[in-house]
Structures are given as structure tokens and as C-alpha cells.
Amino acid sequence: MIYLDNAATTPVLPEVSQAMLNTLNTTFGNPSSIHSYGRSAGKVIREARKTIAAILDAPARNIIFTSGGSEANNQALIGYALANRDKGNHIVVTAIEHHAVLHTVQYLQDRHGFDITLVKPNPDGSYTADLITNALRDDTIMVSTMYANNETGQILPIAEIAKRLKTHQAVYHVDAVQVMGKLSVHPIALGIDFLSASAHKFHGPKGVGFLYHGDLKFDNLIHGGEQENGRRAGTESIHNIVGMATALEISAQYLDSNYDKVSALKTHLLSELDGLDYYINAFGETMPHVLNLGFPGFNQDLLLMKLDLQGVAISTGSACTAGAIEPSHVLEAVYGKTSAKLKESVRVSLSDLTTPEDISEFVRILKSILAQK
């Protein structure tokens, strides 16, 4: 089996699964309990929070553990918007955001009357800080952009956007799900107010993530107990949190070498594709981990099915839209609704666990399928 869908989820590292198993076997106390078992569990969570905070170069008190990136996005967007309506009613997001952001702001518009601006890319697909700041109004209270796009790998000008927002009341939320564990991300240094991440994108378990937040006023999304410094109710998933902290710590340790490895894999892939009729959907600077390819005249669904039958896993875009018949909203934002590219483009996504042999075998199978057209 050749797995090239790492933007959807990554394999769990053996060290991570072992740390999780050890935690399940030894730390069963409720971290909110005051007896020794509870205190032991609470200490494990505190240490995991410190580990992640140190990697982000941020205070541990500003890290909330969540069930994943979607909850983190919801917490930041809904929590801040509802708590700060007295400052304004306008939110700015890009048209290429993950649905965890797009559907959340749509909810805020439909149920709470917020005014949402979807910023479309330039004709060449690029995003500049000017595009974002030109959408600002006096009543804008929040801007939300992804760090890197999950379908194309496009990197947005995060630092420049944050710099521009320092002279405006709007706070800045960044969906960093696709870059956490792959790039060095320090939200305070970058000027980010909220930052979302999910463990399963950097070889951690599914069902756990975190939200970095500045010292801002925002409503809780989940109500009940006083867990997570009173910011998120519910007994913490200790083994998942330990797995996430372990995965991020390992990723941070090998950050540069892993990035170089994936960059070399992308170069190898492009060299193997030489001679094929294809194009790349790339818009400015991109992460080497994600490559969006179009094969003229070859239906993406048929291609995916044929590859899957031969043991190769890739995708057409976000895993959260799997099974949906709608075309990619990311490519649609660039090419328009009627472009043939929306039906013939696929996503190949790599990780540091991908091998050159995986790439060569994938291309061999791909060529054999395309030759049958």
C-alpha cells in the first residue's frame, strides 16, 4: 500500500502510540480529582501543556486542549465573535479556508447576524496582505486565514497580515493545522491572537488538538466543569494529549531535516512525472508536503478509484468533503465554477515517512492508468 494522503491524516509514530499506551495503563485517574490518582493525572496534562507551549514559545496558560482543529476553529471564531459584538459585527476570512472555518462563519451569519466578507484571491490565485486589509472596516472584529492551504499547500503572508492588523481593532485567528509540526510556528512573535492545530496532521492521534489564545475576552464553546483553566469543560483525554505532545516534540526535534526530506521527495516526484501531460495547481509559495496536480481530460474520481484498486491512496482535496459531489471550493475560487480543472485535479500529499520508492511506484502505476485513457 502506498499512502500519499498525508494532508488528510498522517500515520501515528510508534513512539507516540507507545506513550499513549503507557498513559492508558498507568494514568487512569480523573485529573480534576484531588486524591493522588487525580493529582498524578493532572501533572501529566500540565507537563504535556508545558511541552507544547515551549515549542510555540508561548505561556502554558494560553493553550487549550480540544478535540481537534475543527473545535479549535469553532472555539476561536464563535467564542470571540459572541463575546465582542459591542466592538463590531464584521468578520473577514479568505475564500479558500477549510470548511471548519467557512461553515462556522456561515453559522455566525445565519444564526447571529454577523456580516462576513469572503476575500477571493488575485486572478493568479495569490493572496497578499493588501487583499485582506482592503476588506477591513471600522466594525471588523476578527480576521481568520489559514497558514497554508490543505488542498494546494499555498502559504499565506501570515506575518505581514498580522503586522497590518496591529493598527486595527480586529484580532487575528490562524488555522495552522497544515503547518504545525512542519514549520516553526511562534504565534506571539508572529502577532497571532488565536492559532488552531490538530495532532493527527503531525503523526499524533486523531481526536485531539489545541488552540493557542492571547489574553482576550471570548466565550466558552463547551460548558460544564472548570477544566482547561475554565476555558473548556469536560474530562481531558489524557492519553491523546500525551500522544499529541509526544508527536509535536518529535516533529520539533527533526523539523529542518524532515522539511528537507519532503522537499527532496517533491523534487523526485516532479522528475518522475516528466513526460506526462499534467499541470500543477500552485499559487505562489507552497509547502512541499502538498502537490495539486491536474491531468487534462481524465476524471479525478475515476483516477482515484483506479489508483485505489492498485493500492495507492491520494485524494481530490479536503478529507472533510470526502464523498461529496461538490468540486473543490479552493480551485473554484481561482478558476471559476465552470473550469474543467475542477474535475481533473487531485492532491498528492507527502510526509517524512514517505519514501522515494513510494514515489517511483506511484508514478509507475499512474502512468499505466493514464495510458489506458
From TrEMBL:
<dbReference type="InterPro" id="IPR015421">
    <property type="entry name" value="PyrdxlP-dep_Trfase_major"/>
</dbReference>
<keyword id="KW-0479">Metal-binding</keyword>
<dbReference type="GO" id="GO:0031071">
    <property type="term" value="F:cysteine desulfurase activity"/>
</dbReference>
<dbReference type="GO" id="GO:0046872">
    <property type="term" value="F:metal ion binding"/>
</dbReference>
<keyword id="KW-0411">Iron-sulfur</keyword>
<keyword id="KW-0663">Pyridoxal phosphate</keyword>
<keyword id="KW-0408">Iron</keyword>
<dbReference type="InterPro" id="IPR015422">
    <property type="entry name" value="PyrdxlP-dep_Trfase_small"/>
</dbReference>
<dbReference type="InterPro" id="IPR016454">
    <property type="entry name" value="Cysteine_dSase"/>
</dbReference>
<dbReference type="InterPro" id="IPR020578">
    <property type="entry name" value="Aminotrans_V_PyrdxlP_BS"/>
</dbReference>
<dbReference type="Pfam" id="PF00266">
    <property type="entry name" value="Aminotran_5"/>
</dbReference>
<dbReference type="InterPro" id="IPR015424">
    <property type="entry name" value="PyrdxlP-dep_Trfase"/>
</dbReference>
<comment type="similarity">
    <text>Belongs to the class-V pyridoxal-phosphate-dependent aminotransferase family. NifS/IscS subfamily.</text>
</comment>
<protein>
    <recommendedName>
        <fullName>cysteine desulfurase</fullName>
        <ecNumber>2.8.1.7</ecNumber>
    </recommendedName>
</protein>
<dbReference type="InterPro" id="IPR000192">
    <property type="entry name" value="Aminotrans_V_dom"/>
</dbReference>
<dbReference type="GO" id="GO:0051536">
    <property type="term" value="F:iron-sulfur cluster binding"/>
</dbReference>
<feature type="domain" description="Aminotransferase class V">
    <location>
        <begin position="2"/>
        <end position="362"/>
    </location>
</feature>
<keyword id="KW-0808">Transferase</keyword>
